[in-house]
Amino acid sequence: MYQRWLDEYRSKLVTADEAAKLVKSGDWVEYAFGVNGSYDFDQALAKRKDELYDVNIKCDIGSYRHFTAEADPTGEIFTWNSWHVAGLDKNFIGKNLYYIPMKFHENPMMTRKDIIPNNITVVMCTPMDEKGYFNFGASAATTWAAMENTDKIVIEVNEKMPRCLGGNQECIHVTQVDYIIEGSNPDLLVLGAAVPSDIEIKIAEHIIEKLYDGNCIQLGIGGTPNAVGNMVAASDLKDLGVHTEMYVDAYLEMYKAGKITGARKKLDKYKQVYSFAMGSKELYDYIDNNPGLASYSVDYTNNPYIVAQIDDFVSINACIEVDLFGQVCAESVGTRHISGTGGQLDFVEGAYKSKGGQSFVCLPSTIESKGEVKSRICPILSPGAIVTDPRTATHMLVTEYGIANMKGKSTWQRAEALINIAHPDFRDELIKEAEKMNIWRKVNKMK
Q1: Looking at the structure, do residues 224 and 337 belong to the same domain, yes or no?
Q2: Which of 6, 74, 223, 229 is most buried per CB count within 10 Å?
Q3: Residue positions annotated with a catalytic role
Q4: Inside any domain, residue 73
Q5: Which tens digit of pLDDT belongs to each residue from 241-256?
């Protein structure tokens, strides 16, 4: 059979330049999530700048150089549209790259149901195996949904892509592919582990006190989640599970310390479940062909209904600012776009509904901007700030001064709990503002 698949492979083999000629003016082109995005195809497409107009490109955490965006800074020829702004995307946001709002677990549904069909979808994959399959490697997040909603599927082969076992929707057969590019094998994005500050370590210490044996852990991006992972590795905790969207080096450290077994999970027992991986070269080597991990599409990993079925679930994420009502902004500074909703709200809701579940959203109590120190717990969010987690969903908010549980609290109780974990220098001012907003009782007692 292998010879049959090899013959089909060869019949579909094209150069990047030949594949890029498939694009016509007005087309929609999607590059797969994260490290599965395009490199050679996009580089070839950029060469066609003078032949095309109004080509829309969709991406999600564009991990590689954006050749077409660089070639057309005005966005008149190539307009980028990103499901989550991160990495190199940030160089172009507000110029020729625009954000697509979403809850991450809904991305496959939105793609299949509401999104303009792609004319071409490009996916960077492993080389074809003897059974005729290409593996999506470090991300199965949304790939199949994009490919089901497209006219042509183009594969970029990268010999450096790890082969990641599923799960679901983690591979594609050569018979399902239209064109194959044997790429230049660019290095995968290496994401250095965020070094936590002293304040982030203090925040992590508050969370560690709440953890216990058998917790299933989801870590978001940032210094605090990384600090929690490192503390767990050095702790006496045991039999922890993993169910996350993003698999990072902190999980590898916990595994090497013997903390992760998955023995108490009710779903995917003994398996570390994830949707995509970004981290060190060591991390990519670890996930390669590792049967202890399972790569799933994001409508499984991030689905609050699925998360809620995992007992003792712990979700740890970071944010930018919080208001006294408990509304969380994790994606913009005012109107200046920073990242996106991503999976934070998915896990905030799913973790709370888990039996014994806990959702933590973390932030240092202050931020210094232009030489001025400001409170990150504010009476109201900055004008234009995006609400990532509505007050109805927020569970526990954490600063270096402690944890504020928002669930079941009235507006004055919320204000009191949040001011208790604000920086002491700002508490009196926050009380005055809470009084003006009629969410402060005169009998409130500060801790």
Answers
A1: yes
A2: 229
A3: 245
A4: yes
A5: 999 999 999 999 999 9
